[in-house]
Amino acid sequence: MNRIPEDQGGASAKKPLTPATRLVTGGRDPFAQHGFVNTPIYRGSTVLYRNTEDFLQRKAKFTYGTKGTPTTDSLEVAWTDLTGAAGTVLVPSGLAAISIALLCCLKSGDHLLVPDSVYRPTRNFCDSVLKRFGVETTYYDPLLGTDITRAFKPNTRAVFTEAPGSLSFEMQDIPAIAKAAHARDIVVLMDNTWATPLFFSSHAKGVDIAIDAGTKYLSGASDLLLGLVSANERCWKDLRATFDTMAICAGPEDVFLALRGLRSMRVRLLHQQESGLAVARWLAARPEVARVLHPALESDPGHAIWKRDFTGASSLFSIVLKPMPDAAAHAFINALTLFGIGASWGGFESLAIPFDCTPFRTATKWVPGGPAIRFHIGLEDVGDLTADLEKGFAAMRNVEGYAADGV
Ligand SMILES: Cc1ncc(COP(=O)(O)O)c(C=O)c1O
Question: What is the distance between the terminal CA atoms of the chain, rounded to a whole angstrom?
Answer without folding.
Answer: 60
